[in-house]
Amino acid sequence: MEGEKRLPVAPFAAAPEIPAWRRRKIRRSKALRWLGLGCLAFIAYAQWRQLTTVDLPKLLQATPRTHLTPYGLSRKRLFDDLETCKRLSHKPQDPIGEGREKNARYIDGHVPTLIKNASVWVGEPVKGTSPEDARKGKGYEWITADVYLEYGLIKRVESAIAISAVAKDTVIFEAKGRPLTAGIIDMHSHAGVDSLPELWGNEDTNEMSSDITPYARSIDGIQPGDHQIQVIKSGGVTTSLVLPGSGNNMGGEAYVIKHAVGREDGRNETSAEDMLADPDRNWRFMKMACGENAKRVYGKVGEHGPVSRLGESWEFRHAFEQAAKLVREQDDWCAKAKHHGVAKLSEYLPQELRWESLGALLRGQVHLNTHCYTIPDLEAFVDHTNEFKFKIRAFHHAHQTFLVPEILKRAYGGDPPASAIFADNMWYKAEAYIGSEFAGKYLYDNNLTTIYVSDNPVLNAQHVLFEAAKGYKYGLPYHAALAAVTTAPAERLGFGNRLGKIKPGFDADVVVWDSDPLSVGATPVQVWIDGTMQFEDAFVLEKPLPKPIVPDEDLANIVEEPVEVGTVIFKGITKVLLDEDPRGLAARDNTYNVVISKGKIACVGACHSELQVAAKAGIPIISLKNGHLTESFTAFGSQLGLNAIDAESSTDNGDNTNVFSRAVDGLALDTKKLRVAHKYGVTKAITAPMFHGGITLHGTGVGFATGADTALDQDAVFADDISVHYTLTSSVKHAKDTPSMTSAIGAFRQKLVKAAVSLNASSDAPAVRYSETYYLHKVLNGSLPLVISVHSADTIASLLKLKSETELITSQRINLAILGGAESYMLAKELAAAKVGVVLAPFQSYATEWQERRALSGAPLTNGTAITRLLDAGVTVAIGLEEDWLVRDLGLLAGIAYANGEGRLSEKAALDLVGRNVYKILGTEKKEKRQDGHFVIFEGSPLEIGGRVKAVGGGVKGVVQVFEADA
Ligand SMILES: *[C@@H]1O[C@H](CO)[C@@H](O)[C@H](O)[C@H]1NC(C)=O
Ligand SMILES: *[C@@H]1O[C@H](CO)[C@@H](O)[C@H](O)[C@H]1NC(C)=O
Ligand SMILES: *[C@@H]1O[C@H](CO)[C@@H](O)[C@H](O)[C@H]1NC(C)=O
Ligand SMILES: *[C@@H]1O[C@H](CO)[C@@H](O)[C@H](O)[C@H]1NC(C)=O
C-alpha cells in the first residue's frame, strides 16, 4: 500500500522486473526483425571498426542485442520510463490517520504514555454540531480526559483510563488538570536552513543563483543541529513547514519536519530525512514569492530580471510554460507507450530535472505556498493559477488578502487559498505598510482560512502561538484562533487526518500547557512528539492552577477608529494602577468612576458631585466590565517619530553611522505608526537617531507625545535631549573609523577621556552648545544618562570597566544604561552594583546573532530568562522596542513578564516595565513630574489577552480618544 503511494524522489527510480510474458512475446514476434537489425548493426559496426580497435565479443557481452529495441534504445530504461509514467499520473491523497497500527515514524522500543487528568482541546466540535454552529465556535470545549499514547499514535482519549487497562511498561504523566492540545504547527519557518545564531557559513535559506529555482530543495540545507529547532519546540511547536526563502520568484521545494532530532530526542539518527513528518512523502511542497523581494534582491538592471512586478509575472509565466510543455510531452509519451507498447517508441520519456518539480505541481502532486502581500501581487498570481491550472494552498505574508476575498475565491481549483499571516507585524517595507491586526477576523468573516505563522527567524517560532492569541484578542473567535496554529495548517499541509487534533489515530504530538494556550505567557510543561517525551529535565514555571479562558465575544466588536472627546465618564473601574494613588478614592462595591474633563482626569472614586453635574449636562457615561485605569506606556529605543516605513529611505530619517545628531531636529510626526501607538496607549516615545539599523542608536534622544501633529503643538515635546546614545553592538563595525570591536571600544574611550579632560578644564573653554562634546560633558557630570546599545556580555564587561576608568578622572558618577542586553543577565550582579539599568530589546531574545548567542529562551528549556535573572540581582529593567510594530504589544509584553515572573512582579511593577522604569533608568523620574493627561482606560487587564483599550489620554489637544461604538 504505502509503496504504491510513494512518489518519485528522483525521476530515475529503481527498475521493475520485466514480466516473463512480456519477454516471451517480444522474442516470438520480433525474432525476424532482430535478425535484420543485427545485419544492419554489423555493417555499422564494420564501418566503425575501421576507426577503433574495440574487441567485438567483449562489446556484445557488455550490451547484449536483446537489451536494445529496434530503435537502439535500452529496453530496461524504456520500462523504467513506463514505470515513471505511473508515478507521473499519480494523484496523492491525504495520508490516513485512523487505521494505522503504528505511526511510520514510531521507533521500536519506545514505551507507551498515559497522560492523566488533562483538560483536553480535541480540535473539533462535538459530533452532531452543524457546520454553521461549528463556525461560530459552538460544540468546541475543554474536556477532562486521560490521553493514551502508543506506537507513536494517540490511541485513546477517554475519561479515567484505568492503569490496569494499559500496557505494563506505560509511563504515567500527571497533567493535574492542565490544558492539553495537539502540537502547534508552524506553516512558515526557515528553521534549519537559516540556523541561529546567524552565520554566513550556515545560511542556506535561498538559492539565489537564478530567479526561478523550483529545483532547489530546502531539505538539502536543513541543519538538524540548529539549536533554534529545540527552542521552537520549547514553545510547543512540534511541526514546521521549512520553506526556502522569498528572495527569488520560485524558491524551490519545501519540507514538513517534526522537531525531534537525533538520539537525544528519541530518534534513530540525526538527519533531515529522519525529521520528515511523513516518511512516505505523500505530498510534496513548494514555495514561491511575488512582490518586492525578487525585484529588489534578485533583479539587476541590464543583467537579468526581474526588476519590476511586470518582469516577475513574465518570469513566472515563462517557467510555467516550460513545465507545462514538459508535462504535455510526457503525457503524450506515456499515452503512446500505453497504446503502442513501450518498446515501439523511438525515444525515451522526456525528462528534465530543472522542470521536474514544477511539472509535479502542474500534475497536482505539490502543495504550493506563495508569499504575496499586495493586491496586484495576489491578483497576478491568481491569474497564473488559472492560466496554467494549478492550485495554491496558502498565500503567505498575505497582508492585503482581507481586502480582496473575491480575488482569493477566483483562484484555480475552487478551493480558495488560506492566508498565512502575522498577527500585527507590519510597516517594515512598502508592501507591509498596509495591513490590519484585525485581518484574521475579517478573513474569517469572509469564510476564508486564517493561519498564523512565524517566518522564523523573522519572529521567534517558539512564540508562534502568541500570534494566534493576539488573533483572538483582535477579534478572531477563540476556536478559530487555536485552529489557526493547529487544525488549519494541518489541513492545508495535507495532514488533516494526522496532525492538529487530539483523537485516536492521530500522531501523538501533544503539549501540556501551564495555562490556557491563548493566555499571555502560556508555556509548555511538557511536549511529546510521536509519543516520545521531549524534555527530560523540563523547567516548569510556578503558576496558579490554570483557568480556561471564557471566550469573550465582545472582542469581535471592533472599533478601529476612536472618537475624540473632551469630557466623558467611565464607570466600572475595578483597578487603578497609577504612579500616585489619586486622592479621594472612595470605593463603592470595589469599583470606581473616572471623570475626565478637558482631556484630564478630574476625579477618580465615587465622584458623586461630578456625576450629578454630568447627568444634567448630558455628558456621555461609559460602563465597563472590569475596567483598569493605568499610566500610559512609553516606547523606548524605537524609530517612532523618525520613520514611517522601515525599508523606505524617503520615509526615514536615515543612518547616523558617522555623525552624532539630535533626534529632536528630525521629528516627523503624524504617521500611521504614531497613530497606532497612541491608539494602543503608548502616548510617549523616547527616540534617538538610528546608527545603522535595529536598536543601534547614535545621538541624543527626544521625549515626545505620540498624539502630537507637529513638534510645535503644545506639550508635543517633553524633553529635547533626554538621553545620549552610542552603539557597541557588532553593527559598530559599519562606521568609517571603527572596523573592529577593539577600535570601536578604543575610540569610544578616547572620546570619553578627551571630554573628561576638557570638562575638568572647562571653566575657561566651555564646549560649543549642541556639540557632541557638550552632551558628553553632561554625561560626565551626571546630568544626562548614557545609553549604550549592546548585547554581548563581553562588550558589557568592557563597558563597565570603561565606566569606572572614566569616573576616576572626573570623580563623578556616569548614569549608564544598556539598550538591547540579550546577554546582560550574565553580568546581572555587576550591573546591579554599578546601578546600570537595562532596557531589554527584544524583551525575549532568541539569539539571532552571535553577540546574543547566550540568550535564555525560558521554560521548559532554560531556568529563567534575562528579565528574571536581572530582577533577582536587583537591576532596574524596562522593555524597549527593537522594531516599531511591537508598539501595539507593549502591554502584553509586560503581561508575559508578569505571568512568567513567578511572583517577582506585581501588576503595577509589570506595567512599570513599559513606563515608569524607563524614566527611572534614565534618571529623570523626579524631573518628569507626572504629566497630567497621560493615562489609559482598559476593559479587562492590559496584562491579559482579552484586555482592550477603551480610552487614551495623550496629553495633547485637551481631548481623550474613546473607543466605543456609540460614544
Ligand atoms: C531504529 O533502529 C532500530 C535498531 O537499530 C531498528 O530496529 C528500527 O527499525 C529503526 N526504526 C526506524 C523507524 O528506523
Ligand atoms: C485533576 O487535577 C485537579 C487539579 O490538580 C485536581 O483538583 C483533581 O483532583 C484531579 N483529578 C483527578 C481525578 O486526579
Ligand atoms: C459564509 O458562509 C456562510 C454559510 O456557509 C454564508 O451564510 C455566508 O453568507 C458566507 N459569507 C460570505 C461573506 O461569503
Ligand atoms: C533556577 O534558578 C533559580 C534562581 O533563579 C534557582 O533558585 C533554582 O534552584 C534553579 N532551578 C534549578 C532546577 O536549577
Q: Can you give a write-up of this model?
A:
With 967 residues, this protein is α/β, with parallel strands linked by helices. The chain folds into three domains: 184-336 and 354-553, TIM Barrel (Alpha-Beta Barrel), CATH 3.20.20; 559-631 and 933-967, Urease, subunit C, domain 1, CATH 2.30.40; 634-759 and 766-931, Alpha-Beta Barrel (TIM Barrel), CATH 3.20.20. It has 26 helices and 33 strands. Strands 22, 23, 24, 25, 26, 27, 28, 29 and 30 form a nine-stranded mixed sheet that branches. Strands 1, 2, 3, 4, 5, 14, 15 and 16 form an eight-stranded mixed sheet that branches. Helix 9 (309-340) packs across helix 10 (353-362), helix 19 packs across helix 20 and helix 19 (741-760) packs parallel to helix 21 (793-810). The longest helix has 32 residues, at 309-340. The chain is globular and about 105 Å long. The chain starts with a helix and ends in a 5-residue tail after the last strand. Residues 1-32 and 48-57 have low confidence and may be disordered. One 2-acetamido-2-deoxy-beta-D-glucopyranose (NAG) binds next to loops. This is Amidohydrolase 3 domain-containing protein. The chain crosses the membrane at residues 31-48. One of its GO terms (biological process) is N-acetylglucosamine catabolic process.
